[in-house]
Amino acid sequence: EAGVVQSPRYKIIEKKQPVAFWCNPISGHNTLYWYRQNLGQGPELLIRYENEEAVDDSQLPKDRFSAERLKGVDSTLKIQPAELGDSAVYLCASSLGTGRGTNTEAFFGQGTRLTVV
Amino acid sequence: DQQVKQNSPSLSVQEGRISILNCDYTNSMFDYFLWYKKYPAEGPTFLISISSIKDKNEDGRFTVFLNKSAKHLSLHIVPSQPGDSAVYFCAANGGSNYKLTFGKGTLLTVNP
User: Fold this and answer.
1) Nearest C-alpha of chain A: how many angstroms from B14?
2) Please, how many CA atoms are within 13 Å of residue B92, restricted to the half-sphere of its CB?
3) C-beta of residue A111 within 8 angstroms of C-beta of residue A7
4) Rounded Cα gap, residues B8 and B27, in angstroms
5) B102 three-state secondary structure
6) How confident is the model over B29-70, as pLDDT tens digits?
7) Which residues on chain B are in Cβ contact (under 8 Å) with A33?
């Protein structure tokens, strides 16, 4: 079974430029997450989707970040314009659901390492 | 306000010995706890979990212990192997928000 697939793996952009990340979750997983991991920190949630609905985007900086999950499968995360402080690893994860117990176990992709110069 | 704390940034053990990784939490609403392992340039991989109704869960060489009164959990790896060398993240969720809250991670190095 294929895992969570993310692209690109690495991205270097100049500040003020736009950037987009793509995620394909595990087949059948209704819940999709975007996390950001800064150096030396644990992942922090940016947004969580249940199917195509964003049910928790409280941590998403909405002035420059946007996300979508059309048809409840693939998702894209966009930053426009990027700032130096956006340099981080952006992780996509998926899970069967968000109840209690094993269906909350999130499976992560390899991440996209973004460097803003 | 860090709700999940891993106070040891790193841990070094000898192959064959026990590795004990610790995690503390402050949010009393947390009722499900997970450990993830992360190799360089890869995403975190789920390792083992425990519900708050239990105090121990075992899976092969990995055992997680939960002490609810102390708001503390630990991951035991016995025996430790060089391939276990990685960053280990403790995570928790609970209450009305199902998001996972992660600690900062502990880098485990198992020396041959």
Assistant:
1) 24
2) 26
3) no
4) 20
5) strand
6) 898 999 999 999 899 999 999 999 999 999 999 999 999 999
7) 99-100
